[in-house]
Design brief:
This protein has about 70 residues and is an alpha+beta fold. Helix content is about 30%, strand content about 10%.
Length: about 70
């Protein structure tokens, strides 16, 4: 079992400045943040490599709604 376990969280949203968003993205990709609450602002064009888990909140009720939502982004 690992000896050094840490939990560091942050939030990424459109309410942050572009610089603030980039800072959170960089920290998450570098492993300095390991729990991230994010709106769709983080998903566009970001290669995350591997993730252990993703929790989705407010998922559209039908696949067709999700696809429609994705086309707008």
């Amino acid at each position: 079992m690992p000896k050094n376990i840490f939990l560091e969280s942050d939030e990424h949203s459109g309410q942050l400045s572009s610089e603030g968003q980039r800072e959170v993205q960089d920290k998450f990709k570098e492993g300095k943040i390991n729990i991230l609450s994010s709106s769709t602002t983080f998903e566009m064009g970001v290669d995350l490599g591997s993730l252990d888990a993703v929790f989705m909140r407010n998922m559209p009720p039908k696949t067709s709604n999700y696809q429609s939502c994705r086309k707008k982004n």
